[in-house]
Amino acid sequence: IRVxxxxxxxxxxxxxxVVHSLGDGAVHVSAARHDATFGFSAVFDxxxxxxxxxxxxxxxxxxxxxxxxxxxxxxxxxxxGSGKTYTLMGPLAQSDTQPASPALLGxxxxxxxxxxxxxxxxxxxxxxxxxxxxxxxxxxxxxLSPGPPCALPLRWSKTRxxxxxxxxxxxxxxxxxxxxxxxxxxxxxxxxxxxxNRHSSRSHALLTIHIRSRAVSAHPAPGAGxxxxxxxxxxxxxxxxxxxxxxxxSSGELSLEANSINRSLLALGHCISLLAKPRGKRTHxxxxxxxxxxxxxxSLGGSGITLMVACISPSxxxxxxxxxxxxxxxxxxxxxxxx
Length: 339
Fold this sequence. Notes:
- It is a single chain.
- The chain is of the alpha+beta class.
- The chain has a single domain (2-92, 105-190, 199-215, 229-332), classed as Kinesin.
- The chain contains ten helices and 16 strands.
- Strands 1, 5, 6, 7, 8, 11, 14, 15 and 16 form a nine-stranded mixed β-sheet that branches. Strands 2-3-4 form a three-stranded antiparallel β-sheet, covered by helices on one side.
- Helix 3 crosses helix 5 (107-121).
- It is globular.
- The two termini are 23 Å apart.
């Protein structure tokens, strides 16, 4: 769980701080008629640095597991304006000419650095490539392919599960190259301003790093074949924020986008609720209810390892959304897979 600081607007308005970290992964919500304590793997309070979130959330281990051939996913979840994009990517105002301060870089850039360091130190032959797409109004669009974004079909096959047809995958071998791909894709993402957030993401974005490694033996035995290759993935999911239209003041197209976002988050929550049940009591998991759950099917219930960073606001004004995020995250914590 990550609790963001109160914003200037909230402080000026006189909002009360209703969320407090108790240490040891416990978070306490205290407000009129609400008094609840939740337990998680880790809680990062308003003062936690980006570095502390990277080290304390298990993100470094996730990168190492992806290199070992596992399918790893990290997603940021929470209401609009709760700090998801900042946690994953750092400040949005960065560009090629004006990069963000190193201390503010998010989980993504820190993971890229860690991945490239690991690939150098392991001496194994790593081939890295990246794909980046967004789900906007239930349409999948490639953020890396040149030209205006067009909708791509989502297919299913027995061997690959759900996959996006004709998706562009770009190879990279340096930090500059992958950060440039991230910036290029992020600038093409749909964002809008509304009452709660000046840069509200209007789409879910998925950046996937494909890691193919062929272990190279220093002294191969005569007649021994090449070592088998391992294929891992590291997927970063920046979910659009859940929002109440009356709070954001959205109307027209913004309101349609909000309905589409909320529907897909509801489908995701439904899948997580069913996956959290004991194995014997599980019924059919409805991954096909939305494009988001289809694309995350392998991460949620397959043989993947998934880290969920739930971002919340400490403001009394956001109490109901904060409680809803904490309940959602508590259910997600009970999901166990066998990777």
